[in-house]
Amino acid sequence: MWSIFLSGLATALSLLVVDLVVPGVRIETIAAAAIAAASVGLVNAFIKPILQTISIPITILSFGLFAIVVNGLCFWLSSLAVPGFYVKGILGFVLGPIVLSFVSTALSNYLTNHAPAFMRDSSDLSAENPSQS
């Protein structure tokens, strides 16, 4: 449960970083960032696999570069669903999801490794101290 919360927090904070770094991406409020994080997660979970499956021939012909277009399309679709989250221009469309991926991964790893003990899964706690097993 806490891992889902930490992942969502990392994505929301990453979206704020994307807003600062990538021209063409704008997030108006922290609440919009939180809702956008949920929207990005839902689009990536449900719509992205369908788009990837449909675009397999184009992705193969482009040596995988079309996957960047699919990623950008999903990022843009998320922005359509959330008021206060805007993606405009080719830089926002292409660089936004790339920066989001790198920053979100780094923040997720940091938050997971530095979370207080009560936020960690019980399997993580037993792995840290094998003498308790």
UniProtKB/TrEMBL annotation:
The answer to whether the entry has keyword Transmembrane helix is: yes
Work out whether the entry's keyword set contains Hydrolase: no
Instruction: Show the stretches that span the lipid bilayer.
Output: 30-47, 54-78, 90-111
* Highest taxon of source: Bacteria
Keywords annotated in UniProt: Membrane, Transmembrane, Transmembrane helix
Coiled-coil region(s) at which residues? none
Name the chain's protein: Phage holin family protein
